[in-house]
Each structure stands twice: as structure tokens, then as C-alpha cells.
Amino acid sequence: MKKELLNTEIQEFINSNLNSDITKLLLKGVPFKAIDAKQIVEQIESKKRCLKKLPNWFNKANIYYPNKLNIEQTSSETTAEYKASLVSGTKLIDLTGGFGVDTFYFAKKIDKITHCEINTELSDIVNHNYKALNVSNIRCINENGIEVLKQVDQTFDWIYIDPSRRDNLKKKVFLIEDCEPNIKAHQALFLKYSKNVMIKTSPLLDLSAILTEINHVKEIHIVASNNEVKELLWIIERNFEGSPKVKTVNLKQIKSQFFEYVFNEEYSANATFSKPLSYLYEPNAAVLKSGGFNSVSESLKINKLHQHSHLYTSNALLDFPGRRFIIKTTLPFNKKSLSKENISKANITTRNFPLSVDEIRKKLKIKHGGNVYLFFTTDINDHKIIIVCSKVL
Q1: Distance separating the N- and C-terminal Cα atoms of the chain
Q2: Helix or strand or coil: residue 230?
Q3: Among 69, 89, 268, 271, who pairs with 294 as Cys (CB 3.0-4.6 Å)?
Q4: How far is residue 389's CA from residue 375's CA, in Å, rounded to a whole number?
Q5: pTM greater than the 0.70 cutoff
């Protein structure tokens, strides 16, 4: 950590060049002999990435930024705040602290927080930033979190782990046994020191596969932000037995969307089916990831169009965890039927349909955009159809 980067003149230079061309800036050089231009540019690039992702950091003076990779890997403030809403108590230990965004939000809910980070420079950066952010209830320890847990030999209300998804060559890995620490290998240790464990994993993992490798999973949280799944959270409770609840959330600025079901009950849930009615519903990304398609139908008392289409319909407008549309008309899939609608521009979505969006646009000569929404899908009778809609605002 180069503390010279926090000098007033350098901080002013960083802030005044956030929108500068980085290549030109490197060629031109910087007016500071004691600091390498690359280090200043790294601060500029990392800070720029925090504008929307980490506004508290971006807007605070004297924040020191790590490299772009650390910023890329860290939670957003939006998802960190959601995680903090799941915990309570007086003591929490974050075994894989990283840039410390999750820990920062846990500190708003828990009295005493321990932040473990094996990277010395990153640990120093986080410790400095917490002081700049006026946080006083987080203790930063520059050691391997697993070893810290053994050394302190005390219980915590919560243990939080966000395993590194990079190997020794900095290449991305996804399987839990390839991440560090190996969650599968340390389950007993975690539950020795806490009744409650929260594990963050890649959103690419398969729920069923992970449930065969992690024990005592009480809840699975599928967290999306603006309809993009960002992370899976596995809540483990000591001695819990049974099927976990799957809780989906799509975090949005105005109104977040929630849906939940019990994992094993999806297999016995009774979905109902019908042709398109007055309204069409498309599940958000978190619900789609969850796989709870029959549970959506049974719980919300809403009809599916087809077992594999994952689109829903009703005669009355319902609250729904996803997008809602008014159905204008339903057409058989052929060029002649659509041509009568005089649609030259539309937003196209496919579900359980043999052609891609690009293929459809080329075949039917439809440009992107406008207020018309076309869903190309398969109905209850296995007919290929086009549903012409407008969005419910």
C-alpha cells in the first residue's frame, strides 16, 4: 500500500481524471516524481468501477483502491446490504474478507466483526478504508481465515465465507472443491464454531448438485440485481434436517421482487395449464435460476403455457416476480399471420422455441425496439405461437 497516493495533490489529480483517456494519460505521464504513473492510473480505473457499484466508497474522501480484479470480485453495496438483512447477533467472522464490502454492511447489524484477509496489502487497504468510512467495530486480521478460526477458538453468531473463485494461476474456477477455502472439506469446522454459516458461491452452480455436497442447508438465496443473478447464498444451520427453502430476490431500485418455495416440494407441486389468456408473465432471472416453475404456478394460482415454456398467464392482473404484459393477440407462427399486424419493430423473446431471436429477426424482418413485445413460444397443444403484447408499467 503506497500511502503517498493519499496525498492531497494526488487525490485531486485522481478525481479530476476519472473521465480521462487512460492510454493518453500514461503516455503523457503524471506530475508526480515519487509515484509511478501506473499506480495512479490503477487508482483511477478502480475508482471509476465503484461509481455505481460502491457509491459509499466512491463518494468518500481518502479511499484507497485495490486493483481492478478485487473490485470486480467484490459484492456490490446492493447485494451486501441484502446479505446483512439475513444476520443478527453480536459476533460475526468473515473468513475471506476481501475488499470488505460485505463486512462493512454486516457491521451495521452485528456488534463485533472480524475481517480476515490473507493478502497483506489488501488487508492494510481495508483497515485504512474502514477508518476513512468511520467504522470502528471491525477488527482486521491479516491471516488465513481458517487458521484464525482455530486460533481464536471461540464461538460466533455467524460465520461468513466467500471462497475465492480463482486458482493459483488467477484462472476462474466454479466447483466448490476448487475454490479456496474448500467449503466441503471444512463444514465440520465451521459448525463447531457457529450455529449459523453463510456461504456465497458462483451463480453458475447447480442447486441440486451442491445440496449433495453441503449438509444442513436451511435456505438458498438466489440474489439478482436488476434481473441479473449475481450470487447464490447458502444458509447452513447446525443440526438442520429437511429440505431447504429456496428464496429468490430481484433487487430493484423501486420495488424488489421476491418468491420462495421449498426445494423438494417442487417435484410434487401441481402446475395448471392453459392457452394465453389476458395477461402474460415472464419470471425474473432469480426465479428462472431457482427452477421452481411448478411451484410458481401452484403458489400464485397462475397457469403455465407449456411444461417447458416457463411463461405464465391469467385473466386478472396479478403481482408477479418478473415482467408483466397485456396480451393483444395470439398468432400461429408463420410469416403471413404476423404480416397482417404490420409490426416492423418489436422486442422479441423466445421460450421453448426452435429459432433464436436473431434468426427470427432475419426471417421476419423485424427491427429491435419500440413498445411492442413479441413472445415466440410453444403452447399447451405443442403449437408454435407468437404472443403480441404490451408491457404493464
Answers
A1: 49
A2: strand
A3: 271
A4: 8
A5: yes
